[in-house]
Amino acid sequence: MYYGVHNQKSMKNIILLILIIIPLHSFSQEAQHAVQIPVDQDTHKIMYREVVAQEGMKDILYNRAAEWLRSYYVNPNSVVKVLDKVNGKIEGTGRMNIFFKDKDGTSRNAGMILYNLNLEFKDNKYRYTLFDFNLKSESRSPLEKWLNKSDPAYNEQWDIYLFQVDTTMQRLVKSLKTAMQPKVAKKDEW
Predict the structure, then answer these.
(1) Fewer beta carbons within 10 angstroms: which end of the chain, N or C?
(2) How far apart are CA 148 and CA 46, in angstroms?
(3) Pairing of strands 47-53, 107-122
(4) What is the pTM of this model?
């Protein structure tokens, strides 16, 4: 009798777990397709831009950003095109890979996305701009095409690629904002 009750409880727990996991899995897939990519109202191009209030002189903010670039990118020299401390400006071209899952569920490289990165500094604030997103190919292939679901060539995979781009850019912005904070000096108390 005890054995049967134990199995009934286990079976109820398994069913409950399945009922929780399936909607979560579906939600995560829908979330990928529902990503809101920021588009500039004037240019109608994908653009991540924000002016961030941050205490510090222009040169100090510039130095923090330059240090961040060296730690964030594997090869910062291939990214940075302009380092202008006098005018408070850093410009570069970043790269990221996008992936798809084949029929066996294995992640495969779907291509490389190139994007421009501009960082500008003034006393007590800085501005980042991530823009000009293109799929690296023989000809210029802007990602804005992927936003058009009415395009006859529309592919559901484009939503997954846009989700990967957005996730990567959100992670980049978060990392930059953290790096731009003043370093807290730790006292060596023992």
Answers:
(1) C
(2) 12
(3) unpaired
(4) 0.78
Q: Which of 131, 147, 138, 144 is closest to 111 using CA atoms?
A: 138
The topology (CATH level 3) of 38-179 is Alpha-D-Glucose-1,6-Bisphosphate; Chain A, domain 4 (3.30.530)
Take residue 168 and report the two structure tokens written for it: 């990567």
Alpha helix segments (H runs only) across 34-190: 58-72, 76-79, 157-179
Q: Determine the Cα–Cα distance for residues 67 and 100; give it in Å rounded to an integer.
A: 33
pLDDT in tens, 67-115: 999 999 999 999 999 999 999 999 999 999 999 998 888 999 999 999 9
C-alpha to C-alpha distances, 12 to 2, 3, 18, 58, 125, nearest whole angstrom = 15, 14, 10, 61, 56
- Per domain, the residue ranges of the chain are 38-179
Burial status of residue 7 (CB atoms within 10 A of its CB: 0-12, 13-18, 19 or more) = exposed
